[in-house]
């Protein structure tokens, strides 16, 4: 398999992680996941822009421009002839003797990207998924797509342990987002989702859905909702690069609405399908 290592395409075997890589030791780095449909990276510009923004927020300087990064990712996808799947991209602050503060100025970030074949999640899109609610124990800069994913890992595992596919997180009863997705609630024909502040990742699929809702004249409220409202919702769905617009049909074992994907979710799914096609 061919991967991107810094600015070179090399064989996977040539890429090694040093024991003092700061991503490995501290989670000191950032990442992106980009979906590939029919050989094309979907929403490449917003993904690369968010990557650049995350880098800036953690004061990591990348050795290339967005334009150059897009070209390199394009070469990677073409070289591997990826048709349906994902590109994973990450940058760590580099390799340096272990100490919490930033390493010396000449330390170069370690950048890797690779492709993964993956079909679209057709079954989840059609039938919906089951979710749990869980406390949001993550840090207060969830807008940065950082490599520190322990809060998300533990929440997702709590969901899996209960036979579910996603954990819907809340801080003191205020719904934030899913462990790896954004959460939307439909109530009386209107959409509700957490505002894009420091408590959630500003999902690219979330933004696509907000734009679609606007086009379809579905009113949108970027407002915090409570766990109580989540349970009373007519419909609930999650969004992400890999899960697209996936209905949530039960939460903590209780059915959402009629316990099957609702009509507004279906309309948004259909419109999303047209965008990617
Ligand atoms: N997860 N919220 C969190 C915490 C996420 O990790 C993600 C993405 C999203 C959705 O963002 P987007 O629509 O830009 O993919 C929301 C990726 C896919 C992952 O970690 O695998």
UniProtKB/TrEMBL annotation:
CDD domains: D-AAT_like (cd01558). It catalyses: D-alanine + 2-oxoglutarate = D-glutamate + pyruvate. Coiled coil: none annotated. Keywords: Aminotransferase, Pyridoxal phosphate, Transferase. Its cofactor is pyridoxal 5'-phosphate. It comes from the Bacteria. The keyword Transferase applies. InterPro entries: Aminotrans_IV, Aminotrans_IV_CS, Aminotransferase-like, BCAT-like_C, BCAT-like_N, Class-IV_PLP-Dep_Aminotrnsfr, D_amino_transT. GO terms for cellular component: cytosol. Belongs to the class-IV pyridoxal-phosphate-dependent aminotransferase family. Acts on the D-isomers of alanine, leucine, aspartate, glutamate, aminobutyrate, norvaline and asparagine. The enzyme transfers an amino group from a substrate D-amino acid to the pyridoxal phosphate cofactor to form pyridoxamine and an alpha-keto acid in the first half-reaction. This is D-alanine aminotransferase. The lineage of its organism: Bacteria, Bacillati, Bacillota, Bacilli, Bacillales.
């Amino acid at each position: 398999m061919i991967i991107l290592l810094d600015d070179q395409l090399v064989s996977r075997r040539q890429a090694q992680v040093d024991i003092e890589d700061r991503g490995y030791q501290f989670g000191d780095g950032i990442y992106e996941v980009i979906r590939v449909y029919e050989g094309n990276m979907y929403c490449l510009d917003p993904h690369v822009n968010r990557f650049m923004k995350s880098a800036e927020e953690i004061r990591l300087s990348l050795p290339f421009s967005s334009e150059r990064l897009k070209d390199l990712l394009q070469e990677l996808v073409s070289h591997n002839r990826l048709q349906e799947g994902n590109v994973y991209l990450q940058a760590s602050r580099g390799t340096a003797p272990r100490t919490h503060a930033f390493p010396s100025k000449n330390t170069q970030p370690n950048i890797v990207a690779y492709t993964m074949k993956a079909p679209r999640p057709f079954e989840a899109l059609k039938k919906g998924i089951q979710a749990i609610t869980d406390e949001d124990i993550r840090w207060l800069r969830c807008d940065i797509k950082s490599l520190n994913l322990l809060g998300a890992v533990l929440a997702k595992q709590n969901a899996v342990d209960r036979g579910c596919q996603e954990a819907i997180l809340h801080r003191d009863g205020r719904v934030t987002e899913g462990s790896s997705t954004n959460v939307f609630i439909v109530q009386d024909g209107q959409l509700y989702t957490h505002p894009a502040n420091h408590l959630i990742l500003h999902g690219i699929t979330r933004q696509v859905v907000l734009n679609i809702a606007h086009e379809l004249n579905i009113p949108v409220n970027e407002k915090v909702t409570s766990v109580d409202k989540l349970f009373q919702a007519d419909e609930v769905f999650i969004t992400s690069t890999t899960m697209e617009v996936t209905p949530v049909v039960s939460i903590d074992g209780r059915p959402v609405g009629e316990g099957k994907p609702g009509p507004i979710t279906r309309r948004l799914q259909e419109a999303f399908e047209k965008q990617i096609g």
